[in-house]
Amino acid sequence: MAEMRWDLAQLVESVDPDWITARLEEMVVEAMGIADIYKERIEGLDASGFLALLELRDEFSLKYEGAADYCRLKYSADSTDPISKRLNEAVRNAGTKAGQALAFMEIKLGALLKAKPSLVTDPRLSEYRHFLDRMVRRVPHVMTEELEKLTISKDKNGISAWSQLQGDWLSTRTFKIIVDGVEKTMPYGEIISLYQSPDRELRREANRVVYDGLGKDEVVWASAIRSVCADHLQMCEWRKYLSPMTQSLIDNDVEQEAIDALMLTMGESVGAYRGYLRLKAKLMRLKKLGNWDIVAPLPNSPEKKYTWDESRREVVAAYKGFDPEWGSWVEEMYSRRHIDGEVRKGKRSGAFCSSWLSGKSAWILQSFNSQIGDVYTQAHELGHAVHAYLGSRYQKPSNYEIGSCIAECGSVFGELLLTDRLLKETKTNEERRAVLATVLDEFGMAAYQVSARVWFEQSMYDSVNAGKFLDGEMISNLWMVGRDKIYGDAVEWLPEMKWEWTMKPHYYIPNYRFYNYPYVYAQLFVFTLYRLYKEQGKAFVPKMRTILSAGSSRSPIDLAKEMGFDVADVGFWRKGIQQFEEFVDQLEATL
Ligand SMILES: [Zn+2]
């Protein structure tokens, strides 16, 4: 169906591959030209000169966005097509070259701000104020040019290699399991799909087989994670970070106090989640959930299928009910064919939304299989699109570098708008249950389960700092302490689950420490916002628009402050938990 396929030609003046590659070459030449002009001049810039450079940088990224995105998006839609391959290669090469040519800018601009701090508050640069604040925040942690170079080569054969080893090792493991009476050997990527099987015994066995197998290689995983953690603590000293979390706080543009209040709220509210897990056990007619049941589908879930048109109708109506303009943008995403939903071979798995700032719109890819989960994915990605529609209308590209805490706001909010709509439409208790369990399971995983991961990561750094040696058993113990703080006795765990930390690639990714709390932040922040919407009705709509229009022009904390919220206050976050509890009550009412 053509309407389920996106029309990428809108991104470029010509879809001729030669024209596009020539355009990318132009981009590299222009980047080198900018470098020639500015490399030796940055030190002497005054506020007007600084402004001209920032504006030039923004214009440059808008100018070539269409051609570059065309190549990337086309490849994600069909990686087997020879033209896609050629264009993807071209954009990668051009991107690397342009990136290298312009790499000097960040370092030199940081040094300039250090030498002339008055530039930050200069009224001529007021539009870029927060962008400059962020740059200044990074300056004290940048080392000399030589040490920075040395760090890059050290990491290549150090933490990057450990991370690579973890990924390669995991993807080459195979697992033996009996499915329908036949013994099968499956790679990790395949066997994990059995976790969602409606057959409870099979789910349990798949979990047991995987973690038993992973535990056998504990020496590999422990060596890798230990090295990555120890390297991070070492670099915290070199870069003068206050704590192991500082680097991620800077990257995510947030403050320690807000994260402390957030995590405190999660810790004190575990009873709400355990209550849900007990209710889910009841719905599944079990005494207690096993760890293999936590996100399993409910038995007797209605097998309602959604056509593309039905999904479109529900999602558009959900957004329109909140703000008619949002509804019209979402409708435009369908009518202008900016969503690729067709299921095809050679298409990237999963779903994403890519902002199109110069076109003041966005592009979405998903594989639409007519399940309720696909409708939710569509609503989620369209929330990102609304974010892009607003951001591109109000912000320059430099002020649209959104950190993870805010990036998921529009999308998760959109899921709740869809929930609202579906709950109003559903006729049977089974249908209501399926909708509510979808939302509650997702919150449970993104907010509660990820909180356990935050505590686990912190406890590893604390242990290394206390002089303890992180071997497999030790790491497993830390893992179980964090996990049990969330789940308590509400879930029965297979003993093999102590090896759960081994497979999570994020713990091994270089310079990506504390990847986790932004997910908790986003999830609870949006539940809180949704609660306020329910309390304030239409008066809340402009506040949500302000949040999504701000891009990265203000920090998440200042943005919240403008709305009258104090994210360093536990009381603010508790509103999100109240919303979670209300959904649990609604689920209980279906019994
Ligand atoms: Zn998302």
Q: Which terms would index this structure?
A:
591 residues, mainly alpha, three-stranded mixed sheet, two-stranded antiparallel ribbon, binds zinc ion
Quick rundown:
The protein is mainly alpha-helical and 591 residues long.
What does this structure look like?
- The chain has a 3-stranded mixed sheet with strand order 4-6-5, sandwiched between helices. Strands 1-2 form a two-stranded antiparallel ribbon. A two-stranded parallel sheet has the order 3-7.
- Helix 1 (about 15-40) packs parallel to helix 3.
- About 65% of the residues lie in helices and about 5% in strands.
- The radius of gyration is 25 Å and the shape is globular.
- The protein is mostly helical and about 600 residues long.
- The longest helix is centred in the C-terminal third of the chain and has 37 residues, at about 430-465.
- The mean pLDDT is about 95.
- The protein has 24 helices and 7 strands.
- Bound molecules: zinc ion (ZN).
- Zinc ion (ZN) binds near residues 380, 384, 408 and 411.
Question: Biggest β-sheet, characterized?
Answer: 3 strands, mixed
Percentage of residues in DSSP E strands: under 5%
Overall 3D geometry?
globular
Distance between the termini: 41 Å
Helix-strand makeup class: mainly alpha
Helix tally?
24
> Largest beta sheet: what is the strand line-up?
4-6-5
Percent of residues in helices comes to 55-70%
Bound molecules: zinc ion
Low-confidence stretches: none
Mean pLDDT: 94
> How many DSSP E strands?
7
Rg (C-alpha, Å): 25 Å
